């Protein structure tokens, strides 16, 4: 506040009260000045009241909030409903211009300031989270899937003409697959392989290199129906090479038992074959391990093997590499934003310029408010709490597994998600109905794969998936109940058919439950979830025992009775025969 105004305040309330206010106000100003000068997160966050006051002050820079302003254009920031205007603190122009989503708007310097400051603080956030070599980033008001599509389109423009294939290390999440279809590209799915030392599914580097040499042939050999749908003949397959590839699309954090992809090794292959690399880091910023993996990949492409905490983006990476993260999954804001980042300022800026038109500013305001509120210390505290909750969840699931004769899958490389196999609750093979087994075997012989699941397997699958419904009814959201390939029909996405979809594998055999310890979770959440899961598992055990094991026992008893009756009948027949023979004699 202006000093002259404060002088007049003294006339009303005296010097002492004004001085106290000035002291508090000076501290806030210094804190804000440090953020603006350094472009870094505050060590200790701002209060919500201070952030609201800051937003109201900055919004007064936009033309729609000027006194006596008159707009005669088509888009003048008009808002009909006042509570909507208040909800947005008067920011109504959005961000960017028609030619660049990060450009300054002449009508909206306040909104532009918010946009630039948010992107700068996000860059500091990514660097502090484990990737100090990141040179540039920007927030785009689209969720992760569409943001990946934007990156794919930008990368395609920088590849040789005719490049259309994307090598995709399989992750069973539909938006991860549809982002390639939306970009009018041809996905080449690469199946994962099981780690011989544990239960997790890992990157298939051998298959990736095979596909890098000839993507069309790999698709032709491994996905013949897809190749036919895209008119890929044997002649085309024989002439394809790595120049036909737009990029390799990998993933960091994901649903267990899938492990984060081996980013360093994949980037080495990208360098070897001169192919771009796009990393889906949807909720990986909350994992220091995943961020270190991205940093390692970034150093490979920039040729910088030493720490470079303030990479200014002047280096010329040998290949294109981008990584994308969700705002809602990492910063706990409403869905609607993603952060596109990379190790080349020029590359990241080219993605921003490809975005058509202006964009909603809502995700930007949400993220800026959150970053200012948590500060560096708040972020580190959240990361620590996430780690504590993960360890607590892991230990509790181990104890629950012992109690119910289940198995917690060993997935040491996944720092967020866990998988509890429920195979131990299912009836054994000899408890299944004979006619259903014969039906299944006949179908397998006819189809080559159990595409028509037997009635009994369908019934079992229904009981297993009921766990998720049971937990949801009890107020537990986020639990995934996953059926293996042997218990479900193929899932069709466009012209692709995936076996065992949701399990990340076409040869999966175990049904399991996914639970995650993500950022924002509390230890009490873990404890309540375990209690409710225990209750749901007990219910499933009773259901299966009554449905299958008791029926099996009844069938065995009936068989015993039938055998006894047959024996009695045979004995009576033998006696009658002897009597008849005696009479004849």
Structural class: alpha/beta
Low-confidence stretches: 305-309, 429-435, 445-451, 571-585
- Examine the coordinates and then state which fold CATH places here, giving the name of the CATH topology of the largest domain: Aspartate Aminotransferase, domain 2
Distance between the termini: 132 Å
E-strand count:
15
Percentage beta strand: 5-15%
- CATH homologous superfamily identity of the largest domain: Type I PLP-dependent aspartate aminotransferase-like (Major domain)
- CATH class of the largest domain reads Alpha Beta
Biggest sheet overview: 7 strands, mixed
Task: Give structural notes.
By secondary structure, the protein is an alpha/beta fold. The chain has three domains: 3-67 and 78-92, Arc Repressor Mutant, subunit A; 111-375, Type I PLP-dependent aspartate aminotransferase-like (Major domain) (Aspartate Aminotransferase, domain 2), CATH 3.40.640.10; 422-545, Aspartate Aminotransferase, domain 1, CATH 3.90.1150.10. Helix content is 52%, strand content 11%. The chain contains 19 helices and 15 strands. Strands 1-9-8-7-6-2-3 form a seven-stranded mixed β-sheet, sandwiched between helices. Strands 10-11-15-12 form a four-stranded antiparallel β-sheet, covered by helices on one side. Strands 4-5 form a two-stranded antiparallel sheet. Helix 1 runs antiparallel to helix 2 and helix 5 packs parallel to helix 16. The longest helix is centred in the C-terminal third of the chain and has 62 residues, at 523-584. The chain is globular. Residues 305-309, 429-435, 445-451 and 571-585 have low confidence and may be disordered.
């Amino acid at each position: 506040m202006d000093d002259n105004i404060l002088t007049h305040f003294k006339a009303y309330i005296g010097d002492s009260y004004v001085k106290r206010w000035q002291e508090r106000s000076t501290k806030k100003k210094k804190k804000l000045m440090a953020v603006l000068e350094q472009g870094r997160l505050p060590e200790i966050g701002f209060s919500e009241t201070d952030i609201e006051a800051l937003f109201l002050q900055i919004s007064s820079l936009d033309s729609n909030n000027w006194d006596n302003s008159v707009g005669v254009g088509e888009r003048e920031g008009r808002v009909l409903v006042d509570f909507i205007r208040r909800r947005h603190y008067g920011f109504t122009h959005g961000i960017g211009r028609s030619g660049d989503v990060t450009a300054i708007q002449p009508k909206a310097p306040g909104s532009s300031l918010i946009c630039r400051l948010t992107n700068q603080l996000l860059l500091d956030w990514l660097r502090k989270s484990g990737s100090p070599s990141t040179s540039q980033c920007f927030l785009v008001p689209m969720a992760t899937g569409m943001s990946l599509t934007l990156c794919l389109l930008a990368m395609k423009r920088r590849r040789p003409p005719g490049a259309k294939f994307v090598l995709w290390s399989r992750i069973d999440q539909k938006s991860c697959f549809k982002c390639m279809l939306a970009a009018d590209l041809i996905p080449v799915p690469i199946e994962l392989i099981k780690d011989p030392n544990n239960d997790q599914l890992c990157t298939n580097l051998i298959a990736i290199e095979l596909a890098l040499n000839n993507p069309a042939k790999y698709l032709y050999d491994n996905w013949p129906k897809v190749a036919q749908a895209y008119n890929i003949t044997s002649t085309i397959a024989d002439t394809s090479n790595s120049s036909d590839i737009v990029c390799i699309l990998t993933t960091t954090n994901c649903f267990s038992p899938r492990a984060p992809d081996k980013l360093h090794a994949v980037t080495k292959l990208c360098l070897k074959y001169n192919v771009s690399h796009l990393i889906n880091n949807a909720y990986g910023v909350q994992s220091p391990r995943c961020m270190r993996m991205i940093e390692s990949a970034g150093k490979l492409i920039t040729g910088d093997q030493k720490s470079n905490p303030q990479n200014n983006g002047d280096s010329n990476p040998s290949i294109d590499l981008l990584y994308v993260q969700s705002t809602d999954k990492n910063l706990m804001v409403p869905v609607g934003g993603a952060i596109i980042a990379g190790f080349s300022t020029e590359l990241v800026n080219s993605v921003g310029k490809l975005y058509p038109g202006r964009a909603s500013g809502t995700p930007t305001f949400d993220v800026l408010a959150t970053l200012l509120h948590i500060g560096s210390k708040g972020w580190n505290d959240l990361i620590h709490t996430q780690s504590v909750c993960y360890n607590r969840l892991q230990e509790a699931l181990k104890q629950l597994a012992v109690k119910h004769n289940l198995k917690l899958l060993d997935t040491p490389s996944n720092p967020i998600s866990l998988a509890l196999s429920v195979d131990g609750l299912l009836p054994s093979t000899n408890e299944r109905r004979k006619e259903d087994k014969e039906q299944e075997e006949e179908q397998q012989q006819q189809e080559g794969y159990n595409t028509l699941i037997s009635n009994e397997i369908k019934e079992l699958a229904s009981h297993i998936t009921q766990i998720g419904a049971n937990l949801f009814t009890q107020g537990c959201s986020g639990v995934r109940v996953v059926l293996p390939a042997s218990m479900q029909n193929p899932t069709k996405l466009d012209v692709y058919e995936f076996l065992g979809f949701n399990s990340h594998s076409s040869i999966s055999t175990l049904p399991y439950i996914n639970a995650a310890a993500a950022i924002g979770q509390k230890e009490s959440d873990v404890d309540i979830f375990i209690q409710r899961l225990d209750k749901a598992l007990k219910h499933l055990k009773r259901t299966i025992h009554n449905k299958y094991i008791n029926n099996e026992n009844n069938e065995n008893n009936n068989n015993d009775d039938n055998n006894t009756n047959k024996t009695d009948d045979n004995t009576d027949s033998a006696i009658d025969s002897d009597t008849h023979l005696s009479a004849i004699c």
